[in-house]
Amino acid sequence: MGSVADYKLEDFQTFYNLINNELTTTTRTRHATNPSTNTPLPAVPVSTSEDVDRAVAAAQAAFPAWRDLTQNDRAAYLLRFADAIQANKEGFAKLLGEETGKPPQSAAVEVWLIEDHIRGTVVHRLTEEVIEDTDEKRFILRHVPLGVGAGIIPWNFPMTLGVVKLCSALLAGNTFIWKPSPYTPNTALKLGELGARIFPAGVLNVLSGEEDLGPWLTAHPGIAKISFTGSVATGKKVMQACAATLKRVTLELGGNDAAIVYPDVDLATVVPKIVFNALVNSGQVCIAIKRVYVHEQIYDAFLAAMMAFVQTMKVGPSDDPTTVLGPVQNSMHAIPADKLSFKPDATTKTDAGFFLPPTIIDNPPDDSQIVADEQFGLIVSLLKWSDEEDVLRRVNATLFGLGGSVWSKDVQRAEKMARRMEAGTVWVNTHLECGANGSYAGHKNSGIGAECGLLSIKEWCNLQGVYVRKD
Q1: Across 162-268, where does the E strand assignment appear?
Q2: Has this prediction a pTM greater than 0.90?
Q3: Which residue of the set 252, 374, 451, 459 is catalytic?
Q4: Is 388 tagged catalytic?
Q5: 202 vs 162: CA distance, rounded Å
Q6: For residue range 221-237, what is the model confidence (pLDDT) as tens digits?
Q7: How far apart are the C-alpha atoms of 151 and 157, rounded to whole Å?
């Protein structure tokens, strides 16, 4: 497969679709936008339905040979992919900053995360479960890959969330089509170009396009599964479209994560952690803290400490190494401060780019839109509580159920409360901690199925029972 040096990409300025290990162009092209400068990025392809057909055909043709490799062999390919990403980490981090607005340190962390995720995932193995084995018969349950899978990837973590889906699908023995968001297609296309030097033809395909590309994938009869990360509204459309061909689906949808803060916490330690887990990636994280319920005994002190800490977080462009919070990724989220119905606690004046000030909402009503709905930006609500049962009811009174956390020096009490939160992942004295060794799922409208870990790999498979009569 060659040395890592062979995988060094020559440039990060030209972009192509990847179909059957061929870098292909399209008649039409389009430009994503650099959110720090509101200027166009280099052109990317606009795929047609014929491109989708060719990608599916290539993935179908590659599937039998890829399926028949051992898990160790497939893991070796993925590890080589991780090595190649590491060899290009500077180029990927710069490109990621340009298309998402992530500051240099944040972009570098995401590139490291995808490499680390691959290495953490490939240690998992699907094993056969012997249900019964007697002199007369043997019954075994095993997991077999589905075929061609497709990942529809959002713009907030365009590399991480794509690699999460790709890694589970490929390790299980499926082939894969990657559809990046129209807002952030560039890094995915470069990952595809890198993958063409590593994987057998047709195993990985990457298609850039516009809003019609997703529906073409969800309707295609040659695709066995769609893994989608995005909004609840779009997730419902994906599920509806997949029903016509009985595709398997994994939906990782929106969240409205709550943090419950007890009065015994150390403010100097806890406030910075909660602020980080609320505003990281400029708040554009589905499992970021969006509602902070603080006990009334410490509410005023917590608010003051939170406002003081937020003031230390510099908002700026992605090419500034001192930037802590970059712009929001697209203009849908860039609401001018004078249009907000509340006064920001910090302001950032820029001549270009999609910038928002980090903003704390002081004890809004529970039925206000900012509390009831998912917000996706530099806004966090702070709310008072005094009674445990009442705050638990308020926290759970939502259609979302992605994550939640409880903060207290009394770990036993905090864990007991966390276990009663109606969410797919709950944390005690932390938030947002994820890894390839665990699986993450949403409750309620926050999704169906799981991402990461052995459970995710199994969800890229059909269950097969093998019944053998020995006599």
Answers
A1: 175-179, 204-206, 225-229, 248-252, 257-261
A2: yes
A3: 252
A4: no
A5: 17
A6: 999 999 999 999 999 99
A7: 13
